[in-house]
Amino acid sequence: xxxxxxxxxxxxxxxxxxxxxxxxxxxxxxxxxxxxxxxxxxxxxxxxxxxxxxxxxxxxxxxxxxxxxxxxxxxxxxxxxxxxxxxxxxxxxxxxxxxxxxxxxxxxxxxxxx
Amino acid sequence: xxxxxxxxxxxxxxxxxxxxxxxxxxxxxxxxxxxxxxxxxxxxxxxxxxxxxxxxxxxxxxxxxxxxxxxxxxxxxxxxxxxxxxxxxxxxxxxxxxxxxxxxxxxxxxxxxx
Lengths: 114, 114
Known about the structure:
The complex is a heterodimer. By secondary structure, chain A is mainly β. Chain A is 0% helix and 49% strand. Chain B contains no helices and twelve strands. In chain B, strands 2, 5, 6, 10, 11 and 12 form a six-stranded mixed β-sheet that branches. In chain B, strand 5 and strand 6 (44-50) form a beta hairpin.
């Protein structure tokens, strides 16, 4: 079955540690996205990538980093510079056809930093 | 830039009652419109989409939505709600040029009473 996988489902870290969230897709989509979701705030875009080896900052990129070395993979690193990292993180992918905006989402990773 | 407004943060309905969730968008050209559903602790799932053609769109799980250009609206409806429909619902708009990034509304939380 085609889809998007995120791992792990739950992640716990101590403050000051970097942590990497995994996102893999086998939908052959060119575009991939990372969102952060906090209660009552909807989805906020962290980073996106429209093609391998290229990515762009979203609305809240500070304290995060990404890489896109393979079409299938778009890992997100939450660095110690992120002031409030505890949140639900969603990865999505979509066709790189201009103007569609249709996205397919993974199940999410809930990160708790104490 | 486009924007999406979901005026209702919470909606409460009784099981078996009809449902309408409101979505208004702002965009200068013909939009691409989406409704997504998110169960607690899960990723988002596409319910339905409108690109062009018939303004009444059928989706999964018995949902439908109607695009009304004159009102800049894309309201989601279901004739009879089931308890399993309790979830967060997001409206999103994509554009006809350039960006592959949709704009999401803040979401409407649906509560279903038995």
